[in-house]
Amino acid sequence: MTTSADMTGTPGERAEQPPDADDAPVRGLWRQGVEVFCEDRLALVGVAIFLLLAGVCFLGPLFYHTDQVHTDLAAVFLSPGAPGHPLGTDGVGYDQLGRLMLGGQTSIIVGLAAGVLATAVGTVWGAVAGFVGGWVDAAMMRVVDAMMAIPSLFLFMLMATIVTPTVPMLILIIGAFAWLGPARLVRGEALTLRAREYIQAMRSMGGTGGRAVRRHIVPNAIGTVIVNATFQVADAILYVAYLSFLGLGVPPPAANWGGMLADGLADTYSGHWWLLYPPGIAIILIVLACNFIGGGLRDAFEVRLRRR
Amino acid sequence: MVRYLTMRLGQALIVVVLVTVITFVILHVLPGGAARATLGKDATLDQLAAFNHDMGYDQSLVRQYFLYVGRLLHGDLGYSYQLNQSVTEAIGQRLPKTMLLSLLSTLLAVVVAIPLGVIQAVRRNRWPDYTITSLSLLAYATPIFFLGLMMIILFSQVWPILPAEAPQGFTLGEVLSDPAGLILPTITLAIVTIAVYSRYVRSSMIDNLNENYVRTARSKGMPEWRVVLVHTLRNGLFPVITLLGMYLPALFSGALVVESLFNFPGMGRLFWQSALKRDFPILLGVTLIISVATVLGTLVADLLYAAVDPRVRLRGRAS
Amino acid sequence: MSAPTDSTDRSRPLLELRHVSTDIALRKGTVHALADINLEVQAGQVLGVVGESGSGKTMTALSVMGLLPAGGSVVGGEILFDGRDLRSLPPEEVRRIRGVEMGMVFQDPFTSLNPTMRIGAQVAEPLRVHQGVGKAAARDQAIEILRRVGMPRPDKIVDDYPHQLSGGMRQRVVIAMALVCSPRLLIADEPTTALDVTTQRQILDLIDDLRDEFGMALVLVTHDLGVIASRADRVAVMYAGRVVETAATADLFRAPRHRYTEALMQSLPEAADHDTGAKGRLYSIPGLPPDLSRPPTGCRFAPRCRFATAECRTTEVVLSTGDHQHACLHPVTVPAPAPISLRPGPAVVPTPAPALGVREPGERAPKAPAILSIRGLVKNYEAAGGALRRATGQVSAVAGVSFEVHPGETLGLVGESGCGKSTVGRLAVGLEVPTEGQIVLDGTDIATLDRRERRLMRRQVQLMFQDSYAAMNPRMRVDAILAEPLQIQHVGDASARRARVTTLLDQVGLSRRVLERYPHEFSGGQLQRLGLARSLALQPRLIVGDEPVSALDVSIQAQVLNLMRDLQHELGLAYVFISHDLSVVDYMSDRIGVMYLGKLVEVGPAHEVVRSARHPYTQALIDAVPSVDPNAVTRRTDTTIRGELPSALSPPSGCRFRTRCPLATETCATTEPPLTGDVHQVACHFPLRVESAEAARA
To answer: Do C115 and B235 touch (CB under 8 A)?
Structure first.
């Protein structure tokens, strides 16, 4: 084997200058991605809101103790600022702030779990369809088309009438039907990636399909999947709210923001605004936060591949 | 074009068949089976057996499915013992009203969203873009019933100019005779749609404004309004036509919530009330009809797209 | 108004750029795309603006037209059109001038037309908007101008949409559109770069004719020195946002003064010594052009210049005065010794090609057994469609191609897009399965091998891509990319692979520090080096290069070509070198095969094929290549081919070239000519130069 010492030709000519980014520090893709993400102020705001809301909901009850099981009919509809109830109480005497924390836990847990479940199911379905191709792909995608043709809220409600909507059931119901979007997305991604020249290059070296999936397709598709997952979480939180509004949410004494908001609707005309706006704003904030994070992640995954 | 047409029709047919399979399956996983779901929990075992025999539910599953489809093809969606009415009739009374609501809000959304998206694209990364983008994101993150409630509080309580309840007419004509009552539901349903459409128009316009043909138009000395409105807008709006179809499921989901909130006598409210009463024949019937409407709507949108875009219309017909 | 009123119309240039500077604001920092540009175009004159990518040639054109991309703006100087400064005129007036008095033709005809507007409407639009011509009259004028740009059936084409036309036809439409208001100045930015060479010839001839007919001035922006040499009156050479030299075309090509111009010409494959058959190394400019967000002081070429002194790096050099202007402290001394200084002198070629690589043509071919032997190769693709995916026809991509490649030799495959040359390459490396025919690797028909054996066989033949960036996983580091072939083939353990990877980097002249970097951090030339390194990893005996230098600038191309030849000599590699560029193929190859519509129409020793072509298509291809020799007569011989490439869905019967061949007879339509001949083979019923070929044989 030749080494640089016995190369023919003029070494000075052959040795081209290293990339002029050479004076720039060597940075991994993760580092670069994180840097891009951190430059996106909206994304950071999203992370901050999400962490804040999650922190209050999950850690708050450790410091702020309330009884969210037993009703207290002596203390119904107390206005905010009442002693011991900074955000007032609702129609059965639950402390509103404590209830917000409890409801937030449900909303966030269902949102996250359903979002992750939907993404996982959708990714597998779409990936199989995209890789196998042919009539398998056609059959699998027609199933997706058919399920997508049924508006999702109708499906969720139908399911919620059949089974009792506990928290795990909600996760299962939403996850079981929200995977269609990710499935389409991942299939499209798999089809594009499969045709990429670097896959061909690998095949021309004798590489197998398994290697293409492991080393090339999965690492390149993962960004799209993660970004989509954040949007799935946002959607799942909204779906729980809709189901609760339509009377098919988790039954009390469990709570979620959507259910609290729906209950608050009934009190609008009686002027109990503290039962309406806090859960409403909380839902808007957490959904916004998820969307901001998703947008930032998308840029982070894209920008780090941008050529100079 | 002809080939595209047949292919797209075939796809739609397959999807509709699959939808009937799904509703059929749901019918059978219902607690207590189809008979119990139809007749209610007070029915006796004899009644259940008789019903099962009448409907052919004591035969093989495949045969049951074909019997089911056969009934569907004859317009027989079942009978609601709770409403004491055939499902077809119950839906038939309400479907036009839901279609009216959906159509009105889609029209409103298109009319508002296109100019918004164009303005955003032309003034991108400047204050008009940022403002509209923020509002869209906000609208998208707000539960539609909360949004509707805000509208009610604003326009029928704080500033009482519009009724908070939708018209309760029995026929389409009666509903239309009370247009003021339609305003809030239509706007509420349209707002989220506007948010989605304007984002889409924006990105489609930005993509097209970066195309080389736009530079060519400028090189011909075309005024900027002509570059945007004549050259770019047409290309930018073609994909929006398909979006109209793709967005239908979300639109109908939104209509379900809006109808329930404003007490609008459409299919969504029927579905909601039936869900609370566990009136399964209605639930499945509405699900089937709304899905077929979605498939048809998407099909129309796709064919419309194919008809207006010369690249699809004239595919494979070189001079 | 700032226009000079003292000069008369006659002496005043039609277009004059004075100290024009253009900036492009990016999210981070500003690119100073143009710095102090001075140019003049007289009425009726052709100014060629030539430079490599990033030199600012396109930015100059866009600055004049006022079409700079987002963030771009002219920040200084004057752009005088007919004495009026476009920068200080009201926008309405500038728009009118742009639409009526100037016209522009863009590089990519596939994207520069509005896809949903009828051709007629697009062509007539300037008339309607600027001159208020009525609808019917505008349509008639559109038909007329389309006829003048050589569109067949213009009265039908006006109602067509762009996607119904071929690239060449679309470019004619763009030209018609630019000319419809009879402008006084036409700016053509790489008007033929996206087109095949025979189409390029047609379009350039058309522009020439129309320029005479309309009496307009032309600014021809291109990277291609050949195009400039044959078409321009004057030439401006640009480098890194500056004009470094400007002169009458003949002067410039006869005696370039600036060291950059000189180096650029020496980098051309045509500059290599042709006659001996043993082609020397090309001069290649080391390094990369500067980053224009931080332009260097002094001469911008100094960091890459062989003659640069300390003074060059500190002194701002301005253009000299006179007819032949240059901005160089150490210019090439005049007069140049040779009438055409394209042939490199001794100083330019420091080392002749290493002795072991020098082979006399024809001497070695039959001796060693072929490393790759292709016999009767056929590849058809199903043109599928319809709901049931019925085959609606077959695209005949490769139709019975046979050739051999011997160890250590380079076979060049040349042809226009759609001729099947890339498909042959992909078949050879096993990326596609042939419909018919044999691929024999090192004496073994690969169809007879099982999967495992076939995978081992892959080591022998590797593929090098045109766009190495696309061919590398963007999320893998260089070390992983280069080690991947070794992993796939289970060669060595981890440390052996690491050692092999560093050896590969040394071989292609890249620093070992790049191991931790990602593909997007490299320039085009560096990426091709990486691509070459990866294809070398398994120590193959044959590398199939599919347009391996086509995306590179001339000076970078020379670096890669030299490297490929060096490695060939060191490692005894054979190449199948696929390219549309005849001069590059000629430089690289021992033998050349010419393909047309899936057929090999001619194959033989490189110098014979290029200098005494026997197939009319080959001759047409050669004639279409613009020569860098400005004295060469641009012949319009009877071998100039017209018309369009037929569809491979239903290729012509008999000889596939007959529909465009000036010599075709009825025989050509009925009988397919076989590939005949000994060393120099041709598939033609009426081959050219029969007498000389027979004389040679006698």
So the answer is: yes
Interface size A-B, in CB pairs within 8 Å, comes to: 132
Q: What is the reported pLDDT for C176?
A: 92
The CATH topology of domain C15-232 is Rossmann fold (3.40.50)
Within this chain, do residues B263 and B292 fall inside the same structural domain, yes or no? yes
**A301 CA: distance to closest CA in chain B (Å):** 19
How far is C479 from A213, CA to CA, in rounded Å?
20
Choose one of B31, B62, B87: the last residue of a domain: B87
The B residues from 228 to 257 touching A (CB cutoff 8 Å) are: 248-253, 256-257
pLDDT score of C695:
62
A13 → closest Cβ in C286, C471, C472: C286
Q: Does C155 contact chain B (CB < 8 Å)?
A: no
The alpha-carbon radius of gyration of chain B (Å, integer) is 24
Asked if A138 reaches chain B (Cβ–Cβ under 8 Å), the answer is no
CB contacts, 8 Å: B318 with chain C: 164-165
Prediction pTM value? 0.84
Model ipTM value: 0.87
User: Strands C574-579 and C410-414: what pairing?
Assistant: parallel
Question: Does one domain contain both B135 and B213?
Answer: yes
For chain C, the structural domain boundaries read 15-232, 256-326
- How many domains does one find in chain B? 2
Is the same domain home to B161 and B54? no
> Which residues in chain A touch residue B137, judged by CB atoms under 8 angstroms apart?
288, 291
Residues of B in contact with A258 (CB under 8 A): 143
Long-range contacts of A262-269 (CB under 8 A, 24+ apart): A262/B145, A263/A90, A263/A91, A265/B145, A265/B149, A267/A77, A267/A91, A268/B149, A268/B152, A268/B153
For the segment C426-442, what is each residue's pLDDT rounded down to a tens digit? 999 888 889 999 999 88
**A284 in reach of chain B (CB within 8 A):** yes
Contact between C98 and B231 using a beta-carbon 8 Å cutoff: no
Indicate if B158 and B238 belong to the same structural domain. Answer: yes
pLDDT band with cut points at 50, 70 and 90 for residue A254: confident
Q: What is the pLDDT of residues C318-361, one digit of tens each?
A: 888 888 999 999 888 865 444 343 333 333 333 333 333 344 44
Specify whether B160 is located in the same domain as B48: no
> What are the tens digits of pLDDT across the range C526-540?
899 999 999 999 999
Torsion of CA B277, B280, B282, B283, to 10 degrees: 90
Contacts 24+ apart (CB under 8 A), A208-211: A209/A131, A211/C488
* Residues in contact with A63: Cβ distance below 8 Å, sequence separation at least 6, in sequence order: none
The alpha carbon of residue B85 and the mean position of all alpha carbons in its chain are separated, in whole angstroms, by 25
The domain boundary residue, chosen from B64, B87, B110: B87
Report d(CA C529, CA B131) in Å as an integer: 48
CB < 8 Å from A in window 514-543 of C: 514, 516-518, 520-523, 525-526, 529, 534, 538
Q: Is the pLDDT of residue C274 over 70?
A: no
Cis peptide before A253 (omega within 30 of 0): yes
Contact C84/A at CB under 8 A: no
Question: CB–CB of A127/A187 below 8 Å?
Answer: yes
Residue B287 sits in a domain whose CATH number is: 1.10.3720.10
With a cut of 50, list the residues of chain B below it in pLDDT. 316-319
**Chain B contact for A158, CB < 8 A?**
yes
- Note down the domain range covering B239: 90-318
Question: Are B60 and B145 part of one and the same domain?
Answer: no
The residue of chain C with its CA nearest to that of B311 is: C163
Percent of chain A with pLDDT over 90: 22
Q: Does B13 touch chain A (CB under 8 A)?
A: no
Does residue B103 share a domain with residue B66?
A: no
Domain shared by B140 and B234, yes or no: yes
